[in-house]
Structure to design on (946 residues):
């Protein structure tokens, strides 16, 4: 929590609708000590705010901390990373030419298993939290590992660093290496309950960190395990996260491993399996969903389950190009995930950029009409919506974060771009980033420029629930 | 030129073959005052270098400048950007949902035309040279504009900044806006000759900057203009750069505008047209080549023309995913281009990364066998070859730059990655970048990590022809 009431002044940019950004220029936003936005005032400079706005709130002007966006800077909602594996962070950028299943065995499981060493877990988790915060990620849905103490440590570190997080102890009791597998459904359940209890003790109001039930994916979970996790979700009303339909070999394997005769599912689809296990709920985050069938999409939509689109991983692991437009057309809520380390970047801004590019590769596919291909394209506005409002809804926080509205909490980033002077230079203070803005360019150019070339250097400050959690030196 | 002989010590990484990087650890490279590499010595630390290597060269140890790569750092050849439009730099990241031809009219031509203002040209060109140098681009094949003075200024600025460059005054006498078009083939030729003469005066030995004949692309050039530029190339033995087969509408337009009956070409193909105009030579750099036919590829290969692959632009402009493996299989030399601002990034490292990703989208296409798709994938090693040795051959400098060999010139960058300590921190000195390396990771992990997440922060120093031309503060 912030120790003082805060007044933010300048330009605020956030999503008004899927395809529309709203620009609030010369505006004022007031955030109280609980981190809640209590006023959003247009056409309100510092003098006016102090004369009329703060008194109206009953705030003592001398005790308010004022934060001003300078020329070329704007406030933007914090990013929501709806899918990432914290223990895999050291492996980002390491793939060889592998695809999903061999990549898991070659690179991923050995690294995850090694994080049962508390010192290594502390090192890696400390780094991944710092790194994602520095990229403006104010909320992250983390997969940890099967190890309870280090999963709990991840939650503790998020809480200490002030990052909003969903933290899941990973469940996997079959088709995984002997050295990295739950011994039984019962032990997986007990370990999951233990981790949930720890996280609830650490943040009883779940105001910042909450547990999330995490069956890794169908292949690595037995039917009894999935069923019991589904029951646990019903009992606790906790969210669920898992993977679905990322890769064709994976989908074939799921079909072979889980015939409807053995599961009671209504068909042999991947989504149908999860549904039969009680895992397809309105609190479920499904990562990838690249190859869903029409029937599966209808089921996902009916259950109001949410989808985390992970474009960097789609491309890097050659999984396929997810049909985001098709999902959105079916009323399915989507957000963005970095999917580290299936994705190579810790940045949701990079995920947004790559979502634009992957959508263009979809548009270059074969369609019966060029209009059909054209519709596949996601715009800058749309991917920034997915990165904020969309992600917030995916993790069930759409009333709390994702935009600048009275009653929401102040999860935000201050973004600064490099303003090129007449000699072709950018001052060190403004710059140090890779986004150059020229004097004749306006806001409608600046935000796309940020989306296409921005990085953590442009994220000058980051707040969660009103607390300053990252500042770029 | 460097004022002193130089001794570089540490790890050197460069391409040995298309799919193989060579790591020279604990090595020494000596560069004389002309910028030429005179020794590459393996297993040679500083003491040994001073005791045996420098005396062997007849160098006075006290007068040699020593540059050491620290832990986590390595020397890598400078990048070659084989295709970019310097005047378009301010527009990177600005596309809307346009594709090639409407993008040219909406965004590109107005900006290019505005650079006839010398102050704006100086501002933009200064910035683009600084920016590309900071990303490790030691050599760039620039398109300027139709304006002669500002084209000449670009060459002068490259020379002053020490960037190796090919600089082309753009020719376009048809199907372009009235406000931005050559008045006639004759005036285009005269202006081109004027710019060539200027650049030759500025760098008589062409040791750093050289002119390049630049018909924009077929659509915007009349047959007489293309013929005369072909003759000029034959007369001067200068290189040529142009675009080919980027976008399907463009290709259809070329076919309609230039029937073989009017050109004397052997068929109605895009490559056939350039060939008939005398523009398809072993010194020609063809940007894009996304949709070449088998027959065109055979013609390009026969003429030994080179191709600049611009993956960021392929995706961003929805042009198509170039078939790099297919081109390489046909013996065609390829390099990488940023294609700013059709591409969104000033970085060849980003182009290399995106070349990997675009190749994966090709691999996800429809093939009769999975092996066929698999072959489409470009590896980290391959794209780094394209970024250095490949690019050098594309611009005709393969004997001079692209690798660390005796007799080549020292066009190089010092790359540094962030080494994560046990507390999960990276020291400011090493870091400030986005690439985190953990203690247990070796060189075979570090280079891919750099390729996937590196940026200009990792490029600590840049040299061209032995001269330090960029240093990161």
């Amino acid at each position: 929590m912030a120790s003082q009431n805060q007044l933010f002044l300048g330009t605020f940019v956030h999503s008004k609708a899927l395809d529309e950004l709203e620009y609030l220029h010369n505006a004022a936003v007031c955030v109280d000590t609980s981190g809640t936005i209590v006023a959003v005032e247009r056409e309100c400079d510092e003098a006016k705010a102090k004369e009329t706005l703060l008194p109206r709130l009953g705030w003592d002007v001398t005790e308010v901390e004022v934060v001003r966006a300078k020329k070329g800077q704007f406030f933007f909602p914090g990013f929501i990373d709806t899918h990432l594996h914290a223990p895999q962070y050291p492996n980002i950028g390491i793939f060889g030419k592998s695809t999903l299943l061999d990549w898991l065995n070659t690179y991923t499981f050995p690294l995850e298993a090694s994080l049962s060493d508390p010192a290594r877990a502390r090192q890696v988790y400390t780094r991944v939290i710092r790194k994602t915060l520095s990229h403006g990620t104010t909320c992250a849905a983390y997969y940890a590992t099967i190890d309870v103490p280090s999963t709990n440590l991840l939650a503790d570190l998020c809480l200490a660093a002030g990052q909003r997080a969903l933290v899941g102890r990973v469940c996997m009791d079959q088709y995984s290496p002997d050295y990295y597998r739950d011994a039984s459904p019962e032990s997986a359940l007990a370990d999951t309950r233990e981790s949930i209890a720890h996280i609830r003790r650490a943040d009883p109001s779940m105001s910042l960190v909450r547990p999330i039930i995490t069956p890794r994916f169908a292949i690595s979970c037995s039917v009894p395990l999935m069923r019991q996790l589904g029951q646990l979700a019903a009992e606790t009303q906790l969210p669920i996260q898992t993977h679905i339909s990322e890769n064709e070999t994976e989908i074939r394997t799921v079909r072979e491993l889980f015939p409807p005769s053995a599961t009671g599912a209504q068909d042999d689809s991947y989504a149908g399996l999860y549904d039969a296990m009680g895992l397809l709920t309105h609190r479920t985050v499904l990562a990838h969903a690249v190859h869903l069938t029409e029937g599966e999409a209808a089921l996902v939509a009916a259950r109001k389950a949410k989808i985390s689109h992970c474009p960097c991983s789609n491309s890097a692991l050659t999984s396929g190009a997810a049909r985001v437009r098709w999902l959105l057309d079916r009323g399915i809520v989507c957000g963005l995930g970095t999917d580290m380390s299936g994705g190579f970047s810790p940045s949701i801004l990079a995920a947004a950029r790559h979502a634009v590019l992957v959508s263009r590769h979809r548009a270059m596919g074969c369609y019966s009409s060029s209009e059909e291909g054209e519709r596949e394209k996601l715009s800058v506005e749309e991917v920034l919506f997915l990165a904020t409002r969309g992600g917030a809804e995916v993790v069930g926080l759409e009333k709390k974060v994702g935009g600048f509205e009275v009653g929401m909490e102040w999860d935000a980033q201050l973004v600064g771009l490099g303003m090129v002077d007449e000699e072709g230079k950018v001052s060190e203070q403004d710059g140090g980033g890779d986004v150059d803005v020229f004097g004749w360019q306006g806001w409608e150019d600046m935000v796309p420029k940020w989306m296409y070339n921005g990085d953590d250097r442009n994220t000058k400050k980051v707040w969660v629930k009103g607390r300053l959690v990252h500042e770029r030196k």
